[in-house]
Design brief:
335 residues, alpha+beta, Ribosomal Protein S5, domain 2, Alpha-Beta Plaits, 2 domains
Length: 335
């Protein structure tokens, strides 16, 4: 690894990063660790829906963060700032007698990903902040060091270092890229205005017995192998019926938020598609052969919500968007 450049403030600014949302195509809970964390076997896929993070030199003092878009909570608790601090320490700025500390950064985060929605926007922001800070400082870290920092920041953060679909195991620290998927299929996302805390969903899961389904574990392992072997987008869409029930947290989320039960049923009826849950929810998803077809479906959802044919739970209209699965870093685009 190397320390920060002699004068990073002379670099071209700002540094820009896109922080993609993630979709759980499968989520099997296969056990619980002694530290209380659950052991997972899950196929994650990054989405074109993304937050936008810019980093520039601060005018001295501590790092700063301005957030626009979805409310991400208190700035001081944001993973972007925590990621910058952890990365600075890793490049040597926190060690007595080490190189000159990496300068403070001013960050601006445009939140396009709903918060507490099962889409891991905060974790993705953290990974983007790590990478962007290193560029801003002209510094490098070995891949294993980046991975260690990511794992300390949060269970989902290491996934966003993979750059494409991946098999995520353990607490989230084991990430195996699954780069066999060609073009990414379209996805409709519908997020009701009901924030769902992941720990609460796991608490319900444990209360219901804390045992995952063997069929979900088999579906997850089968999908990972198929993606590794080069599964096509069309074949992935064809498997949607099996994938939308391959989430061991689905029942717990429906128990915690019972309003999701009729809404999910009505959404499936409207779109004539099986409807899945991403992570611990409440975001619901449906797969389409292309992003264009997903956009038509998303418009239909908005119209149905607006005219009352699709009553949505929550205090406001749901977030509805069409996006697509990203299959590699080269597919990143502006949100």
């Amino acid at each position: 690894m190397t320390g920060p450049a002699s004068d990073p403030t002379r670099r071209l600014m700002p540094v820009l990063r896109l922080a993609p949302a993630k979709l759980n195509l499968t989520l099997a809970v296969i056990g619980r660790r002694p530290d209380g964390f659950h052991v997972l076997h899950s196929v994650f896929a990054p989405l074109a829906l993304a937050d936008r993070l810019s980093l520039g030199p601060a005018a001295g003092g501590p790092d700063t963060l301005h957030v626009a878009g979805f409310d991400a909570g208190p700035v001081g608790d944001n993973l972007v700032l925590r990621a910058i601090v952890a990365t600075r320490f890793a490049v040597g700025g926190g060690w007595p007698g080490g190189p000159r500390p990496a300068p403070s950064l001013a960050a601006r985060l445009e939140k396009h990903i709903p918060v507490a929605a099962g889409l891991a926007g905060g974790s993705s922001d953290a990974a983007a902040a790590m990478d962007g800070a290193l560029e801003a400082w002209g510094a490098e870290l070995a891949p294993d060091v980046r991975h260690a920092i990511a794992a300390r920041l949060g269970s989902d953060v290491p996934f966003f270092l993979a750059g494409g679909p991946a098999l995520v195991e353990g607490r989230g620290e084991s990430v195996v890229p699954l780069l066999g998927l060609g073009t990414g299929p379209g996805v409709v996302l519908v997020t009701p205005a009901i924030p769902v805390a992941t720990p609460e969903v796991f608490a319900v899961f444990d209360g219901l017995g804390g045992r995952g389904s063997g069929s979900t574990r088999m579906s997850s392992a089968h999908l990972a192998e198929e993606l590794r072997s080069g599964l096509s987008a069309a074949d992935l869409v064809a498997r949607a019926g099996a994938l939308t029930v391959a989430n061991d947290l689905l029942q717990s989320a429906l128990v915690l938020v019972p309003e999701l039960v009729p809404f999910r049923r009505a959404l499936s009826h409207l779109l004539a598609r099986p409807i899945g849950l991403s992570g611990s929810g409440p975001t619901l998803w449906a797969l389409y052969p292309s992003e264009a077809e997903a956009a038509v479906a998303a418009d239909a959802v908005r119209v149905a919500v607006g005219d009352g044919r699709l009553p949505a739970p929550g205090s406001a209209a749901p977030f509805v968007t069409a996006t697509r699965i990203l299959t590699g870093r080269h597919e990143e685009k502006e949100p």
